[in-house]
Amino acid sequence: MKKIIIALDGPAGSGKSTSAKIASEKLGYIYIDTGAMYRAVTYSWLQMELPIEEKYAEEVIAKTTIELKITENGQGTFVNGQDVSKEIRTPEVTKAVSPVSAMGYVREKMVEQQREMGKGGGVIMDGRDIGTVVFPNAELKIFFVADPEIRAIRRQKELIAKGENVTVEEIKAQIIARDKYDSEREISPLKQADDAIMIDNTQMSLDEQSNKIVELAKELIF
Ligand code: CDP
Ligand code: CDP
Questions:
Q1: Could you give the 3-state DSSP secondary structure of residue 170?
Q2: What pLDDT is recorded for position 222?
Q3: Is residue 9 in contact with ligand 1, taking CB distance under 6 Å?
Q4: Backbone conformation region of residue 166, classed left if phi is above 0, alpha if psi is from -120 to 50, else beta
Q5: pLDDT for res 81
């Protein structure tokens, strides 16, 4: 069985991380959530109470050790040994993550770590620039898209489950703004790689979406 690199990119709420998790279990692959890494840096930055300006990036990154580890609650994100899986999903972090991710120094350091984590293959990595920048030679690249309304409805369900009351309209406006910021930044913008397969999952269930990844991967692995 070949150990390939599977690159999943796409806008916020397009089902990348949930479908990647399921597909990685079915394939016996490691799942790497690069969004969680950018969120971890952002979390650390806010904890240090420094302004979100690139001149502080080196200091923040030097003081931030990020680990992605499996815990009893599933995949966990750790900063300096502390489990921050919940903290990195707060509205404060979500609001600040795009400006932090647009910084050249931050991207350089995160991409370095991601290449190291994925170099042996047998990984599914999801983010915005995996197929274009992190692993331009990945054997399988998928670019997921879905209607913003459905993405907002999906996110609202998650937030309601966490006890947060937000309207679909508010979430939709936030994800459209974040996608715009991520797509228009100068360095490694959110963009479909020329050789990526685009899949619109607006009408797809999570099972269908994850099965699609497994199906495409199996054509290359066996
Ligand atoms: O899960 P959600 O779509 O909300 O976002 P995420 O995948 O956790 O990513 C959070 C943010 O990190 C994105 O909005 C991007 O600004 C940034 N990001 C990035 O720039 N490059 C990546 N490879 C992954 C995430
Ligand atoms: O990682 P990304 O931001 O692309 O999206 P996600 O966090 O994997 O998915 C956002 C939400 O949509 C999750 O609650 C998924 O369970 C849900 N989802 C869905 O209902 N149907 C799909 N086909 C894909 C995702």
A1: helix
A2: 84
A3: no
A4: beta
A5: 98
Which residues in 55-66 are b (16+ Cβ under 10 Å) and which e?
Answer: eebeebbeebeb
- Choosing from 18, 171, 209, 211 the residue with most ligand 2 atoms within 8 A of its CB, the one to mutate for a pocket test is 18
Residues, the chain, total?
A: 222
Eight-state DSSP code of residue 153: H
Which strands, in side-by-side order, build the sheet including 30-33?
A: 30-33, 123-127, 5-9, 140-145, 197-200
What parts of the chain have a pLDDT lower than 50?
none
| pLDDT one-digit tens code per residue, 165-193 | 999 999 999 999 999 999 999 999 999 99
* Element housing 207 (H / E): helix 206-221
Assess whether the C-beta atom of 89 lies below 6 angstroms from ligand 2.
no
**Residues 119, 159: Cα–Cα separation, whole Å:** 35
Provide φ and ψ at 65, rounded to 5°: -100, 120
Residue 38's pLDDT is what?
Answer: 98
0.85 surpassed by pTM: yes
Cα–Cα distance measured from residue 160 to residue 203, given in angstroms and rounded to the nearest whole number: 22
Q: What is the pLDDT of residues 10-36, one digit of tens each?
A: 999 999 999 999 999 999 999 999 999
CA–CA dist 222, 219 (Å, integer)? 6
- Rounded to whole angstroms, how far apart are CA atoms 175 and 152? 7
Which pLDDT score, from 0 to 100, does residue 73 have? Answer: 86
